[in-house]
Amino acid sequence: VIDEMELVVRVDDVIRAIFRLHFLDEVRYAELAARLGLATPTVRVRMFHCMKEVRRLLDLEALERPRDHS
């Protein structure tokens, strides 16, 4: 079973940094933007795409997992 951090490894470096800083270090988007030299809306959009990809990968994982038919 894939956990969320394994999924984040599959996305690009900037998105991974945004995800980790926001969720693990609880850094707000404005501070993330300043640290990464990006506009705050850009950080939000990248987080949106990251979460969309994580959901997609979780859906794939669920489809590939064998079902218990008992």
- Assign the structural class, choosing from mainly alpha, mainly beta, alpha/beta, alpha+beta, or little secondary structure: mainly alpha
How many alpha or pi helices?
4
Mean pLDDT: 79
Poorly predicted tracts of residues: none
User: Main sheet?
Assistant: none
- Residue share in β-strands: under 5%
Rounded Rg: 15 Å
Percent of residues in helices = over 70%
Distance between the terminal alpha carbons, to the nearest Å? 20 Å
What pattern of helices and strands is seen along the backbone? Answer: HHHH
Work out the number of β strands. Answer: 0
Description:
The radius of gyration is 15 Å and the shape is elongated. It has four helices and no strands. It has 70 residues and is an all-alpha fold. It has helices spanning 4-8, 13-24, 29-36, 40-64.
How is the secondary structure organized here?
Blueprint lengths: L3 H5 L4 H12 L4 H8 L3 H25 L6
Helix pairs in contact: 2-4, 3-4
Brief sketch in words of this structure:
With 70 residues, this protein is mainly alpha-helical.
What key phrases describe this protein's structure?
mainly alpha; 71% helix; 70 residues
